[in-house]
């Protein structure tokens, strides 16, 4: 992938900012659980709650500008209107789907997040970490399956009861009994089968990358992150694990990507002004983050069983995230296309 010259310096500045906080936070979070301590459940919801304003929700609130910028254009009214229409049509249809078939909508949420978080990490590897070991499209598809499966499948294998509880909370805003349709996914034999198939894809993808690598530096990074995340999602209870990962891993990497298509931010980063670049992002993301909060409040009134407890509010928030993630994935896939991430 060709990187335009002004971006080279910006990328150098951004790389540690995009990667290090995620590595550090996840490594620290593993420690108490690895030595057998427990954290109060109230605390475990904190990162997901914080994601409403910090990094998480805002990382998608620049979608209306992102496609045009990725194409090297200034986002004009028509470009913004197209993205708003995409959100209304795709997000709107999926929101209706949650009311009509909540269990199926939940299953789709997991599949879509699997793809989306996988594609986010593929970008980080290819464009930020210069992963030259990922040469073919097959390897890149394998990497998306591997990286997305870490947050979506490993918790199902390690913490099925938590997973079911969260599924029940989301589906329960609509139809409490509907969650029974998801029961097969929690059966030990089904989980074992999924775990074995997934393990085979992890081993095959990493082995192929090892064979194809000239200089093994980027392969080592890929393998270390993958195995580190297996340990992380196997040890840290999922609400906490996903809350931290969403903010400091997925969203931070995506914000770094957004800064690299914003000429003003790229210029600031080229001069080492990291804070100024992130301030530009915050300014761009602010209006639609506010709109999102309004829509989330509206959703709370619209669902048959409005949320009352913190876990139920977090469940409703996740339904809202699901609805906005589907159009967000279309935007990010267009960015992938323009930037040749799957080449
Ligand atoms: C919290 C949680 C879960 C699901 C979280 C999901 C699916 C989050 C998706 C977020 C997205 C798509 C953000 C946008 O980039 C699981 C896996 C059921 C396990 C239990 C805890
Ligand atoms: Fe995202």
UniProtKB/TrEMBL annotation:
Its cofactor is Fe(2+). Keywords: Cell membrane, Dioxygenase, Iron, Membrane, Metal-binding, Oxidoreductase, Transmembrane, Transmembrane helix. Fe cation binds at residues 59, 116, 250, 254. It comes from the Archaea. It is found in: Cell membrane. Its main location: membrane. Catalyzes the cleavage of beta-carotene at its central double bond (15,15') to yield two molecules of all-trans-retinal. Belongs to the Brp/Blh beta-carotene diooxygenase family. This is Probable beta-carotene 15,15'-dioxygenase.
